[in-house]
Amino acid sequence: MVIRCALEELRENADVNFKNIFKEIVEFAAKVDVEISMPRICGRQIHRVNINVTDPETYFKISVYLPFLDYIIQAMHTRFDDRLSEVMPLEGLIPSNFSFYDDDSILKAAMIYDKDLTYSDSSCLKASFSINYRLHLIAI
Questions:
Q1: In angstroms, rounded to a whole number, what is the distance separating the alpha carbons of residues 34 and 36?
Q2: pLDDT at residue 19 is higher than 60
Q3: What is the pTM of this model?
Q4: Cα(82)–Cα(68) distance, rounded to whole angstroms?
Q5: Contact present, 116 and 122 (Cβ < 8 Å)
Q6: Taking the chain, what is the end-to-end CA distance rounded to the nearest angstrom?
Q7: How many angstroms separate the CA atoms of 87 and 98, rounded?
Q8: Phi and psi dihedrals of 124, rounded to 5?
Q9: Could you give the count of Cα atoms lying within 13 Å of 72 in the half-sphere of its Cβ?
Q10: What 8-state DSSP symbol labels residue 36?
């Protein structure tokens, strides 16, 4: 959540942030005697990015920086949506995580996958928790 907010803030202030990044890149490139330039622009290009701008900073901001940030933000929204917090208690099924979750929260999370379970009866799942918990105590 914190990382996603930070990335969204970078996206909102993309002009200022990229200007600072590009300034550092130009300074580093000057140290190693490299000139930052844009690829040549065609009149009509359909198979790659073809942005009609005159300076490298704007070109790389539009063609690389903004699409990259948008992709990462979208991927984080997809992977870490609200459903993740609902199913996280299933982590309690791992023996080393028994103590972090109570049986009721695990059962509630398991009921999300009720249609996928062979036995949807919660008493079977509770019995399994009890057996696994006892085996875990014996192992300790």
A1: 6
A2: yes
A3: 0.60
A4: 23
A5: no
A6: 35
A7: 15
A8: -65, -40
A9: 16
A10: -
21-57 as b/e: b if 16+ CB within 10 A: ebeebeeeeeeeeeeeeeeeeeeeeeeeeeeeeeebb
Chain position carrying tokens 């942005």: 51
Tell me the backbone φ, ψ of residue 49, rounded to 5 degrees: -65, 130
Closest CA to 22 of 37, 11, 12, 7: 37
Alpha helices by DSSP H, listed for the chain, are 2-12, 14-31, 56-60, 66-79, 82-87, 103-110, 122-139
- The contacts of residue 109 (CB under 8 Å, 6+ apart) are 86, 87, 88, 89, 90
Q: What would the pLDDT profile of 37-88 be if each residue is shown by its tens digit?
A: 887 777 676 776 677 788 999 999 998 999 999 999 999 888 877 777 778 8
Confidence category of residue 23, pLDDT binned at 50, 70, 90:
very high
Cβ atoms of residues 14 and 64 within 8 Å: no
